[in-house]
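Input set for joint prediction.
Command: fold jointly, output tokens.
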Amino acid sequence: MTTMKEPDRPWIESYGSTIAAELPPRRHASLAELVHATSMAHAGRTAFTCVVPNGMNGSLSFARLGTLSDDFAAFLHHICELRQGARVAVQLPNGLAYPVAAFGVLKAGGVLVNTNPLYTPSEMIHQLADSGAEVLVICDMFADKLAEVIPQTSIRTVVLAGVPEFFPAIPETIVRGVQKVWSRTLPPVPPLKVPVLRLREALAKGRAAGVDTEALWKGLRPDDLALLQYTGGTTGVAKGAMLSHGNILANLDQVLAMGRARMSGRDCVLTALPLYHIFAFTVNLMAFYSAGARNILVPSPRPVQNIQRAIENYPISWVTGVNALFNGLMNEEWFSAFPPKHLVAAIAGGTALHRSVATRWTLMTGTPIAEGYGLTESAPLVSCNPLSDAARPGSIGIPVPGTDVALVDDEGAAVPQGEPGELIVKGPQVMQGYWKRPEDTAATIRNGWLFTGDVAVMEEGGFLRIVDRKKDIILVSGFNVYPNELEDCLAMLPEVLESVVVGVPDLATGEAVRAYVVPNPDAAGTLSREAIIAHCRKHLTGYKVPKSVIIRDELPKSPIGKILRKDLKAEVKAEFAGKT
Amino acid sequence: MLTELETTLLGVMMMIIMLGMGASMTPRDFLIAFRKPRGILVGLLSQFAVMPFLAYLLATLLGLPAPLVVGLILIGCMPGGTTSNIFTYFSKGVLALSIMMTTVSTMVAVVMVPALLAFYSGLAGVGGEYVIPPGDVAQILAVLLVPTLLGMILRKLNPNIGATIELIGSLMGVVVILFLIASWVPRNYRLLMETEAAVYAATIGIGLAGMLFGYWVARGLGQDRNRSRTISLETGIQNGPLAVLVVTLSFTAAQQQAVLLIPLLYSLFIVLTSTIITLWYRNSATREALARDAAKIEPA
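tokens >
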């Protein structure tokens, strides 16, 4: 059992003059209050601008976003009869509809369930059923999945929103026309037994209900649940991390504490990472927004050329991204030839930032890039490099203010200074637990400490360095891939006898998925790599699909027949030694 | 021949097309394109060196009469048509290269077209009455640069307006051809029946020859398959409606009618030939992409 006293914080000496040693007192009781106060404070200034690849765009001011999210909250409360603590799933790519829906849910006292728009129906069903979501706000491009999904969930109302939502009329019509006629990405809405309406209609109904929305969130306390943010954890079954209003409020203050010295209050932040992911949610949507910055939303950053007009047409001063995004940008000539003039700094997270990428970025843009570390379970930021000369490449930086970290051995005892140990975290950003999974919660949070499963060492000055991941999770561009889930999927194929999925180093995505598969000699058909990949593509989101498939006659096994994953990992390690 | 109203309408449509072409890019796209100008230079070479020569060669080989020679050489000298961008998109080519080549060739055209036209007309021995005054051609092309620049400025000032104009411009590229078909073909169907096979061979042949040579010139100069296909379409697809406009503004009456034949027929047939070539290119591009994907899956 972990029996730890409050440790001292050796990293505070590295904070320098720009980072406050202690977290400031909480300014708001809830995220709803923060959104309301931010709308009032920055009123007519632009809060969000969404830019599609051809440069067409739409914007919402702080005040207008305040009004629209009030309307959506009123709609949820009055028309959908949503009560405090009830879950609303929001399944949208980056766009103006996202902040309207997300802020509306929070203002109605609801719990936001962020959902990846690219999820397959079975992934959606799991998440929607597990969270017990009552309302689903989904991008109209994926409406075709509803027929299969809705009957297997507790969704009572579906709200559809488009990518060009809240664009001026002509660009909106054109983008929609292009989606419908040209790229054919607007499927018809299948007939459903629950009411389906467009976001615009929902907002009109909410407005007509004319409610005092302040009353809906006035009673919210910091301990009330704000988000169910799904993550796989160790077992591979996606679990909802319960993040309270207080968790997010604390973490956005922690983000601001690290960056504030370089922020101007007139910043323009490039939001190419999806807002449904906790990194962009807390850093871009919450922290930068609350500081009065303008978010430039890119609905789909792939291919990376989709970001070109967003970077060219707006005075981008901050960029948040993952290794693959920074690398991709620097490989584009329009970026390397004309790096953004107003850039102040960049924040990298999600997956390890390669040293070479960080060095190139700083050389190319003349601005620092700070690598941070976090988990969904900690809303997410745990540590971050300072945006100064004190930053250490290859390190995940120092714990953010108000956070305690310790490195422990398998028994939970602190390891000696400089020795590797499992990183454990305590702070106001640590989640309340996993939704309806007390056993998983108990295994992950012990005595108030969050066990990350990552093995790290602490260097002089409190800088942390990740050594290895304890878990077998594969991190593809910041997204967790759980070998179990993939192996289960592969097992569905009659031609597959057994399989093991491991991560291999990949320059573009950090890690790539590799499946080792043994064919079933008794099966009628023969096993082809193409068929395996096609099968995975059918059942899983793109990033989970193996990038490489290796067909073997047998897999390494222990005397009792357990497949030895670690042997394959060692093989991979030998194969890639010196390559990355 | 075209009536005055039709000529005016054609002029207005060309203005809109050029406005849209300008709006399809930003000044920065230009700067970027000229950092590595190889692709564009190769494109310009096939546009202004290969095409006019092919036109001259075809005209000589087929032994066409003077007005038709002028029409064919004029087509050969024209800058790239904006419809090439649409075909490039559908053929999965390099859209940025196509847009840039069209724009650059249109700008360079102010100087190149009058010079080439004078040179090849002289070489072909075209007589006085069928000579297109180089000054007039330069003037028309220069006037069309105004909307091009305006389009670029609008794009810079307001991306929403810019992208809208871009779309309208590219739709207009199709509309103008439909307009020419609707206004000219019904009045001239008898002429079409009487037209010799050699003329049809010239109008269809110049587009196909441009695409064929454009591709191999690009390949020969080290461009990859996909870029070569883009340059091929760009070379073969000339700005036919612009040639029609030049003819209607330079000639009148029977002379106009005679010279107009090849530019008009070219504008009509190039849509058909480009469609077929585009389908073929699209298949090749898909096949190559699949082969690349397959190579990524590791061998056992």
